[in-house]
Amino acid sequence: MTLMAAWTGLAVLGLLIAERRGSRLGVWLTKPLASLGFVTLAVVGGFSTPFGRWMLLGLCLCALGDVLLIPRANAKPFLLGMGSFALGHAAYARAFCLLGIAPWAAATGFAIAASGGIATLRWLGPRLGADMHIPVRIYVAVIAVMVACALGASVNVGDATLAVGALAFAVSDLSVARERFTGASFTNLLWGLPLYYAAQLLLASSTN
User: FRET partner for 160 with CA separation of 20 to 30 A, picked from 57, 71, 112, 203?
Assistant: First the structure.
């Protein structure tokens, strides 16, 4: 894990530098490399179990989403990226369910995630175009289910990695929402990108 974490960390640093300098070529070079780091970690860790295979699928879908979010001038890649991430969240949720779910923990996780999602939708509502209302609501709902499953599985197996990774992933999505809907700012990327990639590394490490 140390090697892949270092790989991803260096790529994220390069990505942040490219974003700061406004180098789209730099972003196209470094972002896929950063995402390849967490996918490779899962592959090296092994995916011989159903849990591992569903996690790897989720990681690959998120890596695809990372690439689809690179273009900024066209809304279609962004919608495709959202779809890819939503499918990634769904794959994670399926993987967590295979570990068994502690009902009370899942219910608590859903309440937390749903509350955060409702607050986010109220914040974003006036800023969303007509074509984004339904996709964003679906995406928020999928995240809430994924977080609930992660907390339920973490309690059931006694491993906090899944819960921490899932929550960090969900929180990192706020930086994407801010960047896309409330105005581009390097500050959004400065905290959102490291948090996102750290979350993915944690989730990828769970396949070991």
Answer: 57
pLDDT digits (tens, 9 = 90+) for 150-181: 999 999 999 999 999 999 999 999 999 888 88
Residue type, 22: G
- Domain span at residue 139 reads 2-205
Which pLDDT does position 40 carry in this prediction? 94
Can you tell me the distance from the alpha carbon of 111 to that of 115, in angstroms, rounded to the nearest whole number? 6
CA distance 95 to 87: 12
Q: What is the DSSP string of 23-86?
A: -HHHHHHHHHHHHHHHHHHHHHH---SHHHHHHHHHHHHHHHHHHHTS--S-HHHHHHHHHHHH
In the structure encoding, which two tokens stand for residue 26, read together?
Answer: 């730099």
Tokens 């849990």: give the residue.
51
Could you write out the DSSP letters of every residue in 6-20?
Answer: HHHHHHHHHHHHHHH
Compute the distance between CA of residue 159 and CA of residue 148 in angstroms, rounded to an integer.
Answer: 15
* Whether the model pTM is above 0.85: yes
Q: For the chain, how many structural domains are there in total?
A: 1
Which bin fits 46, alpha (ψ -120 to 50), beta or left (φ > 0)? left
